[in-house]
Design the sequence.
């Protein structure tokens, strides 16, 4: 029976990649400390550096989409309240 592949959490990958970017320890030292192949550490470091600008970009839709999801119901509520105010003004 073959070996089962190890799966790492995103949090673990990010932690290890950040340590590699800091450069306090070499990739080999990090790899032996966390029992991961040095090539894997290098790959995660490259992924972190290549995708870091996207974290601060609003073009990717991550932050702006959640903003839209939050504001849409609020605008609907504002519209309903304005209609209620107009209706109440007519009643008076």
Sequence:
């Amino acid at each position: 029976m073959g070996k089962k592949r190890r799966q790492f959490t995103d949090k673990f990958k990010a932690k290890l990649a950040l340590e590699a970017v800091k450069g306090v320890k070499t990739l080999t030292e990090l790899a032996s400390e966390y029992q991961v192949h040095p090539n894997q550490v290098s790959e995660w470091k490259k992924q972190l550096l290549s995708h870091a600008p996207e974290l601060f970009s609003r073009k990717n839709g991550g932050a702006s989409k959640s903003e839209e999801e939050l504001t849409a119901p609020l605008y609907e509520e504002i519209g309903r309240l304005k209609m209620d105010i107009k209706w109440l003004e007519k009643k008076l």
User: Anything to note?
Assistant: The chain has two domains: 8-56, 59-92.
